[in-house]
Design a protein that fits this description.
The protein has one helix spanning 16-29, and strands at 40-45, 48-53, 59-63, 74-76, 90-97, 100-105, 112-114, 117-118, 124-126, 132-135, 138-144. By secondary structure, it is mainly beta. A hairpin with a 2-residue loop joins strand 1 (40-45) and strand 2 (48-53).
């Protein structure tokens, strides 16, 4: 295996159009595009996963829910050792608005983090493809099929 000993060069961009194009490409890579037609979101929760089918104005609550009261719009994290990992009974919410996904902390005890940044209670933040959600000490990765962003 050969080692390339050429020095790394820094790219200096002075052209605003090139910089804007690179930013748009990076945003597409980050998943700022709208949710695709399938509207299927997959939450990878450590050793398992949950599939959600979302429509505009649809919300799913994440937390620990009693098995005696199953609801279709609740995601029970009890099977993932939710209580031991600091999941509140009603911890967070994922919802879709204008074909975009959002995460909101529902005033949880141990906090909600999106890509390492703590959310303020009741403040919605956009979810991107491969976003990492941390509820208490439970890690969840968000995946979905997106459609290309419409350029304005």
């Amino acid at each position: 295996m050969s080692h390339d000993e050429r020095p790394t060069q820094r790219l200096i961009l002075k052209n605003g159009e090139i910089m804007e194009a690179l930013i748009k490409q990076r945003n597409r890579e980050l998943g700022t595009a709208r949710l695709g037609k399938a509207r299927e979101v997959i939450l990878l929760i450590e050793n398992g996963m949950r599939r959600l089918e979302l429509r505009n104005e649809t919300a799913y609550l994440l937390g620990r829910f009693a098995k005696s009261k199953p609801r279709s719009k609740h995601i029970d994290l009890t099977p993932f050792n939710g209580q031991e990992r600091g999941i509140s009974r009603i911890h967070a919410q994922i919802h879709m608005e204008n074909d975009r996904l959002y995460l909101t902390d529902m005033d949880s005890t141990n906090g909600t983090y999106l890509d390492g940044v703590k959310l303020f209670p009741h403040q919605q933040k956009p979810l991107r493809q491969n976003s990492m959600i941390t509820l208490g000490k439970l890690h969840i990765q968000v995946m979905y099929k997106s459609q290309p962003a419409v350029t304005e």
